[in-house]
């Protein structure tokens, strides 16, 4: 039985005893006087007071004891958690120092190689080690060196040995004085090697590397080289590769590489292969509690060290993982949601202590990062194994409280009986103020916040009455304040809704005006529609649209909706740009202007055509940055245009400007199209007139398998030879005449008569029409071809004559040649060349 159960049982027993005593007294004194009954009530009240005082004392004792127990438990728990956090930080720090030591050695070797490049001109001559004499070409075409030297050298077959390669190898040979000592000082290192950008490698220790690698092996394609190159490592820091299982039996190995730069030029990397056996052994030896264990993962969640209990925690079966894939398994996304969150924090470099359920057992998981390479160490231990002292202390406390509770029950019963005996002599007048105070409290509970307690005594009852009154006043003030705040919030929401509705209505109006603007492309019809639409949608007194004249001197009223505006249109109303009125100011400055019915702006409303104007706004109509006119809006209301109205009308002005530009461009396009079509028809007409005139050909008549050319006679009538047929000139009811049209111009007609003088049906008419349309294009193409051939022949003849004339050296030969060639070009003509003599009058 815990503390709460003990306290509850004791309280029930006390209250039950008091009720039995009260029941017996009420039956005995039910017919007695009020004072007697009050006395009994006092006795009952005293008994209750004693009982509850006893309960309070017991509860206080239990609460204090429970508080001390909780503090003890909290202290022990914090101590255990702190110990666990310190343990994981200590183990992570040990691993971090190991990684940092090797990373520092690699960075020092990379810096040393970079410094050697500064003296390459001297070191590259081969005074210490000469590649020219030390390298030996193997059967595969690649190069290596003797196994007796300090380091192994490997040159891929694709690399040509030249002075640059030799100089670089001679320079890197001086790493022999530092790399072996670094290798010797770190027992976890398997190898240190330097690789340049060609793939040329110097390897420590000397394992006769060239004999172990294939001729086409390219070290620059290895992951540790790629992640250290400038493309993936612009910060030029040391990089750790993904761990792997060494094929030569080195166990789990990880490579750390540092870039080597000669100034800003990337020259290669220095890398070291580190065995993780020492660190994983250190992690495996961590024991917390009876069953606690530790594990390690890399920055991608891959398992570096994990005991069987760890695999069970993450729900991974190690039996299904082969040796090669063992260290590629990741814990990310495995296990419970709490465990997934923890592993995500671990790979992100986080640290902390989390309590989570693991296989039905509450478990601590403490984790800390390894700063050198982003690995993370975790320690898992059941909570119960760290709280043995808490459980022992809790059991002892429970036993002591149970003993104390039994003793307190006996003492309480004695005190309760004594209090009832003493209370029999107390007066009952205290009951009246209490009753009145209770009535006041009930009124307040019922909602009457104006009720007040009238007791003014200086005892506890008076204090309680004052407290009731104070509470009632504050409650009344609070409710009044809440009502006021609710009213204010309601008013604010109403105003906001009105603004939103007004904004939506304005946007809808803009859309309607825009639809009206976009429905017409004729400028003369468009402008009045715009003015009427804006006035109708926004209920403005007058809307006018001004456009600048071609000389940009005046803004001319081009459209208006009001009666006064239409009279102004009839009078060719115009305003001087930059001088007259608001419109003049706007068209001159390109900025909007608002005029109100007060102060200096009142002078703008002196317009006999618009006598009711009290507010006016004018906005520029812009085409890009050029002012093309103004939108003038007038209202009968003073101060009618606010900031929102200006914004809305500005949008409308922009739309009007675009509509005007579109209408102008449409008119210009239509005009240019009409001119182009007219010119095309004129060219077609003149071309065919010249063609027919030159050939004197009227047409062709085809009857059956016979075709006859129709030529114009000298008297202007057609001649078809002996095959003339009067049907050509005498129309019959069965004949049809279809015009031959080209680009809208009629260049001839086709007369068709069906056999047997029958009428052609609609399908035959469609076929004839389609053939005539295609024939018109073919005739036009043939005419163009013939004219082109004539021009080519003409230009060729002129060119030949010019060439022959240019070949003559004297004037006489030139003139003779010119006359001869002209007579040849124009057979049957006589050619005479005559020079005009200058006549001078003395």
Reported by name, the CATH topology of the domain at 119-275 is Beta-Lactamase
Task: Write down the overall geometry.
Answer: flat
Unreliable stretches covering 5 or more consecutive residues: 719-733
Percent of sequence in beta strands: 15-25%
Structural class: alpha+beta
CATH superfamily of the domain at 119-275: PAS domain
Kindly state the number of beta strands: 25
Most strands sheet: 7 strands, antiparallel
User: What is the CATH architecture descriptor of the domain at 119-275?
Assistant: 2-Layer Sandwich
- Average pLDDT value? 79
Give the class-level CATH name of the domain at 119-275.
Answer: Alpha Beta
- Give me the oligomer status: single chain
* Count of discrete alpha- or pi-helical segments spanning 4 or more residues: 21
Radius of gyration: 56 Å
- Helical fraction: 40-55%
First-last Cα distance: 157 Å
In words, what does this structure look like?
The protein is of the alpha+beta class and 842 residues long. Among the domains are: 1-90 and 387-429, no CATH class; 119-275, PAS domain (Beta-Lactamase, 2-Layer Sandwich); 279-386, Beta-Lactamase (2-Layer Sandwich); 737-835, no CATH class. It has 21 helices and 25 strands. Strands 3, 4, 5, 6, 7, 8 and 9 form a seven-stranded antiparallel sheet that branches. A six-stranded antiparallel sheet has the order 17-16-15-20-19-18, sandwiched between helices. A five-stranded antiparallel sheet has the order 11-10-14-13-12. α1 runs parallel beside α13 (388-423). The longest helix has 85 residues, at 34-118. The N and C termini lie far apart (157 Å). 26% of the residues are buried.
